Amino acid sequence: MAMLRHFFLTHEDLTQIILYAAVITFLWLAEVLVSADSLRSKFKHSSVNLLFICTALPIQLLLTTFIIIISKWDNLHHWGLLNLISWHSRGWTYYIIAFILLDLCEYTYHVIMHKVDALWKFHLVHHSDLKVDVSTTTREHPGETFVRTSFLILWVFLLGPIVGVLIVRQIFQSFSNIAAHTEFRLSGRANKIIGLLFITPNLHHVHHHYKLPYTDCNYGDVLSIWDRIFGTFNELDKEDTHFGIDTHMDENVNGKFVNVVKIPFQKLERKSYPEDHN
Q1: Exposed end of the chain (fewer CB within 10 Å): N or C?
Q2: What pLDDT, on the 0 to 100 scale, is given for residue 12?
Q3: Is there a domain that residue 271 lies in?
């Protein structure tokens, strides 16, 4: 037991990867039990999404090194917004404030990915999944992995959080993103209560609806408060929610890894506005 504890404490990145994989595997198996799809159909769908782990992981691990270096440099030189405050101790107050600021940064990043055409071309790969389940969490084009992690480098440089905050933040963010993409939805009452503060599967499913204005709402990463503050919050009943993106609904493209990877390098079609709100 002591050896395991020492291993997890000295291999934080690997530990998070193991936990991430374990949670996704557990929830995927749970989805199989309740899904109307056959095991073969679900495996075929998931295999396309899970291949993106192979492209994302090397980029993520490489750029995470720079994130840690910048975090340590910021705190050594007292640089960054968080270091403008003279903290007597970096206790729970510091962690909560840093967490909230980083969550606001992730909300900002997500909005930028939707509004800038050159970046949307990469982000729409995630939205092109015609069936959202826990495997959709991993459906991220390597180009977006690079952009997302580069933005995180910028946020860390500007804020100056300690490495401990980044580790805690990554754990919460990973579990939140995984849960938000599952097929499981909360009851209406539970969603109303939990959704006041956090992004729930119900709320994130709305973001994956194939038409505007719903595609451009519920940008929140962990917290839903930013959508409420900035007017991007929206709700949609389950029966009215249809996954995908209206400019890329061809299953022959979305269901093949190589074709999906090519999407950002093809002519961009603007997201179209719906004739109605369904």
Answers
A1: N
A2: 55
A3: no
Average pLDDT over residues 238-259: 91
276 in a domain, yes or no? no
What is the tens place of the pLDDT at every residue in 22-33? Answer: 777 877 778 777
Strand partners, 209: 243
Domain span at 189: 2-265
Its pTM stands at 0.88
Name the burial class of residue 207, with classes exposed (0-12), middle (13-18) and buried (19+) by CB atoms within 10 angstroms of its CB. buried
Task: Confirm whether 212 is domain-assigned.
Answer: yes
Is residue 116 in a domain?
yes
Residue 88: exposed, middle, or buried by beta-carbon count in 10 A (0-12, 13-18, 19+)?
exposed
**CB contact set of 107 (below 8 Å; sequence gap of 6+):** 219, 220, 221, 223, 226, 227, 230
Q: Which of 4, 3, 12 is nearest to 174 (CA)?
A: 12
Instruction: Note whether 169 and 102 are within 8 A (CB).
Output: yes
Handedness of CA 26, 13, 70, 53 (dihedral sign): negative
Closest CA relative to residue 135, chosen from 58, 52, 210, 204: 52
State yes or no: pLDDT of 169 exceeds 50.
yes
**Overall number of domains in the chain:** 1
Q: pLDDT of 197-214, one tens digit each?
A: 999 999 999 999 999 999
